[in-house]
Amino acid sequence: MKVAVIGGGISGLSSAFLIKKILPQSEIHLFEKSKFPGGTIKTVEKDGFLIECGPNGFLSGKFSTLEIARLCGANAKLVEANKDAEIRYILKNGKLVKLPDSPPAFFLSPILSLRGKIEILKEPFVKPLKDDYEETVAEFGKRRLGQEAVDYMLDPMVSGVFAGNVNKLSLKQCFPRIYQLEREYGSLVKAMLKLKSKKASPSGRLTSFENGMAFLTDKLVGSGSFKFFGSVKVKSVEKKGDKFLLNGESTEYDAVLFAIPSYAYKDIDFPEKAKVIDGLLSIKYPPMAIVSFAVKKNMPEGFGFLIPSKEKRKILGALFPSNIFFKRAPDGLGLLTVMLGGDNRYEIRDMEKGEIIDLAVKEVADILSLSGDKIDLVYFFKTDRAIPQYYRGHGKIVEGMERIGKSVKGLFFTGNAFYGIGVNDCTARAFAVARKITEFLKGKYA
Fold first, then answer.
1. CA–CA gap between residue 237 and residue 233 (Å, rounded)
2. Are the C-beta atoms of 206 and 212 separated by less than 8 Å?
3. What CA–CA distances, in Å, run from 131 to 28, 127, 128, 134?
4. Range of 378's domain?
5. What is the pTM of this model?
6. Does residue 205 sit within a domain?
């Protein structure tokens, strides 16, 4: 039994690893167009700093990533975020305001005006939608919480998670849990009270590895569960009888799993491509830049800060990685990572490296009251395509891919273009798709 996995990000790596775990007699070949595995997960070590160019970690409240770490032997290097990292900030009127972490703290916080807080108090009495209209995050928030909550709570949340536009992203697709809570309980406040009484499990602590997130992807490749072929471009997947051929070569595969960004499908011929390619290419991937600085003075405590669009700043926010995890910076220095770009700032794509760095320095120096001699560049990273944006209608794109999976037996799809952008989303889907593929193979050879 042979399986081809196309795409070497966390989705493809986890799926390949799990298929072999479930079905030891299978042979898995994983093809990645770049030289190195990891996809959006990229950890850089430089001058004693440990820098993440992609996700900084995952929440430990869901089992999937933790279980994969255990299975591949990466769990010995797990680290949880420091307690102080629970402190987070929003920029309001040019000043950092602590994000409240409890209802009493919320009502004492200046994050919203009295009027904005009263709007939120009305939330339990707002009737849920009865039709199937697909709301954006902003539409949902304005209806249930008020415009001020959209501007200073939901907008920066969307910016921090998706680097997205609160007026474009679909609530149902981006935050399905929130969508479901309204459907099930009629109110977010009522849902929280109900779930608290049931002692619902928390979302968990932010978790990573001593050597960064790339430690997990390297462990998966080094597990020996599959053969990793880097610097290989798959240009065609053809079905002949009940087998698949890649690039017209003679090796036959019983199943093929795509685990690539939606835009990458443009350059690969595969069965029934014409039915879905327009939808795939409609998924936007805005540019992002990450600029990491060494800071020679004490930074604010906590995780970092996000900036609402209403503040008219030119950065999305910043993280304080050396506050979040130990051993992210040399003794006596702090690590500050500034995020730029996103779905509201496409001009980053056309800006030169020096322009972006100067912009990052200017913005954080102003916000954090840093002088030029207290901040030095450590690392710069830029990508023209960062996080996929789930706009209204995204669910129909996913349904189209799943229809192909049903009609073309042995063809499967996964990845953050479809089933959630977080590491936990990708690893949870890896468990699901690995089960589907192994059930298919068992049936084929029964």
1. 11
2. no
3. 45, 12, 9, 9
4. 286-383
5. 0.93
6. no
Check whether residue 421 and residue 375 sit in a common domain: no
Pull the structure tokens for residue 413. Answer: 């799809």
Do residues 171 and 140 lie in contact, with contact meaning Cβ atoms separated by under 8 Å? yes
Residue type at 326 in one-letter notation: F
Closest CA relative to residue 56, chosen from 186, 145, 180, 161: 161
Residue 151 and residue 240 in one domain: no
Q: pLDDT of 176-200, one tens digit each?
A: 999 999 988 988 988 888 887 544 4
Overall domain count for the chain:
3
Helix-strand-coil split of the chain, %, nearest 5: 40, 20, 35
Residues 291 and 144 both lie in one domain: no
- The answer to the question of residue 379 being in a domain is yes
356: pLDDT strictly greater than 80: yes
One-letter identity of residue 192: M
Which of 164, 197, 230 is the last residue before a domain boundary? 197
Exposure on the CB side of residue 16, measured as CA atoms within 13 A: 34
Domain identity same for 263 and 291? no
Q: Which helix (H) or strand (E) holds 56?
A: none
Of 96, 167, 152, nearest to 318 (Cα)?
96
Average model confidence (pLDDT) across the chain: 94
Q: Nearest to residue 9, comparing CAs of 328, 417, 432, 412? A: 417
